[in-house]
Amino acid sequence: GNWTQxxxxxxxxxxxxxxxxxxxxxxxxxxKHKSSYITVRSxxxxxxxxxxxxxxxxxxxxxxxxxxxxxxxxxxxxxxxANKEHFITSKFEKYISKYLNAVQNSDQNILKSANYxxxxxxxYHKELGLE
Length: 131
Hints:
Layout: E1 13-18, E2 21-31, E3 36-41, E4 49-53, E5 58-60, H1 75-83, H2 85-104, H3 108-111
Antiparallel strand pairs: 1-2, 2-4, 2-5, 3-4
């Protein structure tokens, strides 16, 4: 296809800093795995719901890529995110820690699981100290 100039699609994110690395965790809908923080549960089978998707975390090395423009979500979702800052950060830290251990131990059961199979963390081995 052709790239259309001037079209920009923004994503709602939550920024989390771990060991001086800044990650942007995107808000997504139709999340199908447990490596997330769900803000709105789905009634559909095999779909957890809408929320923060840890598997799509992006490492941000330049803040110029982060806009200060607000991303509109429902007041209820915003409140859930604001009230659970410590819990969400802790859960994401555990997600990264489990990934690091799996890579260091070549644990294919974890690395090929639904929680890590399509994780973006594989792009950040150097920054995570795995190289």
